[in-house]
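Predict the 3D structure for this chain.
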Amino acid sequence: MAKSSILSSSIAKKVAMALSGLFLVSFLALHFTINLTSVFSADTFNACSHFMGYNPLIQFVMQPILAAGVVFHFVMGFVLDFKNRSARPIGYAKNNGAANSSWASRNMIISGSVVLAFLGLHFYDFWFPEMVYKYVEANPLDATRYYPELVHKFESPIRTGLYCLAFFLLFLHLWHGFNSSFQSVGFNNKFSRALHKLGYAFAIIVPFGFIFIALFHHFNQ
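Done. Predicted structure below.
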C-alpha cells in the first residue's frame, strides 16, 4: 500500500511538472515572437514591448502566474531528480546509462540548472532595470527606449556568449522535455506522433532562433 502511494505521488509530481513545463513553453513562444520582431523592425519591437510592459493584465496577473510557474517547475525538477537518485539501487551506478538514453535525458537537472541561472541573468539584465525605471525612478513613458536597450545588452561578447550557451542547453532541455511531458500526461493516440514532431521542431526553432537574435544584434552594433 505504501509503495503504491509513493508511486502515485511520484506520477502526480511528474504530471504536474509536465503541465507546468508545457505552460512555460507558451510564454517562451510569445517571448520569442516579440524578440524576433527586433530583427525586422525596431518600431514593432518597441510597440510590442511597451504594450507588454504597461498592460495591467500582463503585469499584475500573468506575470505573477508566470513567476509561480517557473518556481514550481524547477522546484519539482529538483525534487524528482533527488527522489530518482535516492531510489536507485547501488548497483545502478555500474550500468552504462549512455547505452540506453541520451545525454539530454540523463542530465535534465544540469541543463535545467543552467537555464535557471540564465533566467537569473535575464532578470538582472531586463526585468530589474524595467522595475527600477517604472516604479523606483518613476520615469515618464518612453515607448521608443526598448530597442536601444536590447541592442546595448548584446554589445558584450561575453554576455552574448553566455546567452548563446544558455539557449543551446535550453534546446537540449526542450528536446527531451517535450517527449517526457507527453509521456507523463499519457498522451498516446493517432495525433501523438505529429505532436512529437511539432515539439521537436519547437525545441530546435525557438532556442536557435534566440541565438540568431543575440548574434544578429551583437554583430550589427
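Residues 13 and 80 are 8 Å apart (CA to CA).
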